[in-house]
Amino acid sequence: MSTTQDKLQIVEVVQNWALWRDAGDWDRFATVWHDDGWMSATWFQGPAAQFIQVSKAGFERGVSILHFLGGSTVDLAGPRAIAQTKMTISQRGDIDRVTVDVVCAGRFYDFFEKRKDRWAIVRRQPIYEKDRLDPLDPSASLELDPDLLGSIPEGYRHLGYLQAKLGFKVKRDMPQLKGEVVERLYRHGKAWLGGAPSPFPDGEDPRAAVHESPKKG
Question: How many domains does the chain have?
Fold first, then answer.
């Protein structure tokens, strides 16, 4: 298979991720991941199989999180790849009885591997670049809690604020446009392309703890 065909297959997987997740097509959504796939987001960090379960539960109770994709770039190294895709995350919800839309712009940073002639995601890490919050009713009065707002990193400040108000536990150290966290992610990507045994270098693979067999007591 040519490099161009490999890249086209990877970009198709990225597109399928957004379309099938947002449509609630859970059986097909499961096919974009390898069995050991790992998802990180502001509100969830864990195995892809668990992410599918919680996403389905949220979909069924009316949680509104949608995705729109822009351009993609793919770096290939044999059966390994890193794909970066411009995206926006759009979430609707209520803050103090005021319905709002939050739109966060950023990138999906995906660790891919080709196994048994199939490209799929091993690790997905969004990069959060900037966001905004708008009441659906422009005449609505909304006062944000400055302490809560200030506790969330700038790149996803309003998205995290809404999610916290909705009862989600929001991770405070996600990659943004600049800074050591995103630079570390880039180093992980280079190591992955260079043949590192895990997309989480330096013995920090969280999948190991998840898949450990329970100790017999």
Answer: 1
Indicate whether 170 belongs to any domain: yes
Task: Note whether residue 196 is domain-resident.
Answer: no
> Is residue 47 a contact partner of residue 30, using CB atoms and an 8 Å limit?
no
Distance CA 38, CA 47 (A): 5
Is the pTM above the cut of 0.85? yes
Name residues of the chain where pLDDT drops below 70.
1, 210-217
pLDDT in tens, 19-34: 999 999 999 999 999 9
The pLDDT of residue 211 is 54
Write down the residue that tokens 């822009």 correspond to. Answer: 70
Instruction: Kindly report the CATH number assigned to the domain that includes residue 95.
Output: 3.10.450.50
Domain carrying residue 136? 3-177
Specify if 217 maps to a domain: no
In contact, 83 and 74? CB cutoff 8 Å: yes
Residues 6 or more apart whose CB falls under 8 angstroms from that of 51 comprise 39, 41, 44
